[in-house]
């Protein structure tokens, strides 16, 4: 990687696949990721392991993709796997984020969670990444800019914008076609600029809107055995196409950070590629969901900590470039690539664990009660609930009830 690319805020590896549909979507008690407990017992709702599994597997693919990125020039296999994974891992994460945003109506409690769980982590990590770059890359003058996200933080900006726009998409008659039209216009508009990474926000937005319109029954269809059988030829064909396209295709199309003209292509290709990649990415994301386990697995609990793995692994991913770790010839062999893949998956797995979550919760999920006015109506509702259901909170639930 050249020094010019390291100084750019639009580096290829800044493309996550990750949610980060952070824990905020579930913290509000969304029914989409839980099965409601008995209103009489007051039992807490249960998380659906399918979505936690999907988020963990997606974030593992994020880390693997970042590990493969420097290997692409010397390995067609690495380049093909990189293209294949980048075609769906980010769309899958964004679809999940949209799905868990369906109940967002900009209520005070929801806005508070959006600020503390997405906006504040963006500010903290934008500053932290910039300071890290200054030290690790010996670039002491590199500026801190909250309007120009660097590396992984762009996704947090996008999530804030998308979620705030949710009420508008919910009243639109044809939300997905409208979002696609906006994405097409962005793809042919080179003057949009870098502020808030607006190109990515607009070009990835159709996947968020698609998640908003999906219903539980759509995911149920993907749990059928027939869906697995149908996905096999799709995945096989996609891998073969990625291997063919690796030396011929500009992978920057998958980052959606530039217009067609900025990629050196005619303007009309921007609209065509936007529509083609939306169809391709949606199909591959569906195939990914088909193979996500539906039952509780050893990694299911880690799905609640994917934002931690996403943001924290970026320091090592970037550091490996700054410190020239990829200069080691062995890493560019088949054994080296396998070892890197295992290491990347293990690293991000460790960063999603509860001890790491407890250590960095101050930055990822700060409570910040001091920053918000108390909601008298919410306090009154809470008191009313306590008065009406005292037994539900103090009386043990009989076994088997």
TrEMBL record:
<dbReference type="InterPro" id="IPR052734">
    <property type="entry name" value="Nod_factor_acetyltransferase"/>
</dbReference>
<feature type="transmembrane region" description="Helical">
    <location>
        <begin position="113"/>
        <end position="132"/>
    </location>
</feature>
<feature type="transmembrane region" description="Helical">
    <location>
        <begin position="298"/>
        <end position="316"/>
    </location>
</feature>
<protein>
    <submittedName>
        <fullName>Acyltransferase family protein</fullName>
    </submittedName>
</protein>
<feature type="transmembrane region" description="Helical">
    <location>
        <begin position="174"/>
        <end position="192"/>
    </location>
</feature>
<feature type="region of interest" description="Disordered">
    <location>
        <begin position="1"/>
        <end position="45"/>
    </location>
</feature>
<feature type="region of interest" description="Disordered">
    <location>
        <begin position="375"/>
        <end position="401"/>
    </location>
</feature>
<feature type="compositionally biased region" description="Basic and acidic residues">
    <location>
        <begin position="383"/>
        <end position="392"/>
    </location>
</feature>
<keyword id="KW-0472">Membrane</keyword>
<keyword id="KW-0012">Acyltransferase</keyword>
<dbReference type="Pfam" id="PF01757">
    <property type="entry name" value="Acyl_transf_3"/>
</dbReference>
<dbReference type="InterPro" id="IPR002656">
    <property type="entry name" value="Acyl_transf_3_dom"/>
</dbReference>
<feature type="transmembrane region" description="Helical">
    <location>
        <begin position="266"/>
        <end position="291"/>
    </location>
</feature>
<feature type="transmembrane region" description="Helical">
    <location>
        <begin position="80"/>
        <end position="101"/>
    </location>
</feature>
<keyword id="KW-0808">Transferase</keyword>
<dbReference type="GO" id="GO:0016746">
    <property type="term" value="F:acyltransferase activity"/>
</dbReference>
<keyword id="KW-0812">Transmembrane</keyword>
<feature type="domain" description="Acyltransferase 3">
    <location>
        <begin position="49"/>
        <end position="347"/>
    </location>
</feature>
<feature type="transmembrane region" description="Helical">
    <location>
        <begin position="336"/>
        <end position="356"/>
    </location>
</feature>
<feature type="transmembrane region" description="Helical">
    <location>
        <begin position="198"/>
        <end position="215"/>
    </location>
</feature>
<feature type="transmembrane region" description="Helical">
    <location>
        <begin position="227"/>
        <end position="246"/>
    </location>
</feature>
<keyword id="KW-1133">Transmembrane helix</keyword>
<feature type="transmembrane region" description="Helical">
    <location>
        <begin position="144"/>
        <end position="162"/>
    </location>
</feature>
């Amino acid at each position: 990687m050249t020094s010019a690319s390291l100084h750019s805020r639009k580096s290829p590896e800044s493309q996550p696949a990750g949610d980060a549909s952070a824990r905020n979507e579930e913290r509000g008690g969304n029914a989409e990721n839980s099965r409601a407990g008995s209103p009489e017992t007051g039992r807490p709702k249960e998380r659906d392991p399918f979505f936690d599994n999907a988020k963990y597997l997606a974030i593992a693919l994020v880390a693997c993709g970042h590990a493969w990125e420097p290997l692409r020039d010397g390995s067609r296999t690495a380049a093909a796997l990189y293209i294949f994974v980048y075609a769906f891992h980010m769309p899958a994460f964004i679809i999940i984020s949209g799905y868990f945003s369906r109940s967002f109506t900009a209520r005070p409690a929801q806005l508070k969670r959006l600020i503390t769980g997405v906006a504040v982590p963006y500010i903290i990590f934008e500053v932290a990444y910039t300071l890290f770059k200054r030290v690790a890359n010996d670039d002491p003058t590199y500026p801190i800019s909250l309007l120009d996200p660097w590396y992984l933080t762009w996704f947090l900006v996008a999530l804030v914008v998308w979620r705030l726009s949710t009420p508008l998409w919910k009243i639109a008659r044809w939300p997905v076609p409208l979002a696609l039209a906006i994405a097409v216009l962005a793809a042919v508009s080179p003057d949009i600029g870098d502020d808030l990474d607006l190109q990515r926000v607009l070009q990835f937005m159709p996947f968020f809107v698609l998640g908003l319109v999906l219903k539980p029954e759509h995911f149920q269809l993907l749990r059928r055995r027939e869906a697995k059988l149908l996905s096999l030829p799709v995945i096989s064909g996609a891998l073969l196409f990625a291997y063919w396209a690796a030396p011929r295709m500009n992978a920057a199309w998958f980052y959606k950070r530039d217009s067609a003209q900025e990629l050196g292509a005619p303007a009309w290709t921007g609209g065509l590629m936007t529509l083609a990649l939306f169809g391709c990415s949606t199909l591959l994301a569906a195939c990914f969901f088909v193979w996500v386990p539906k039952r509780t697995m050893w990694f299911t609990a880690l799905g609640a900590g994917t934002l931690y793995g996403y943001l924290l692994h970026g320091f090592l991913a970037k550091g490996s470039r700054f410190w020239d770790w990829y200069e080691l010839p062995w890493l560019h062999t088949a054994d080296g690539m396998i070892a890197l893949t295992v290491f990347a998956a293990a690293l991000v797995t460790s960063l999603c664990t509860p001890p790491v979550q407890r250590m960095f919760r101050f930055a990822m999920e700060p409570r910040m009660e001091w920053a918000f006015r108390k909601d008298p109506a919410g306090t009154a509702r809470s008191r009313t609930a306590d008065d009406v259901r005292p037994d539900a909170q103090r009386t043990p639930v009989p076994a088997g009830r």
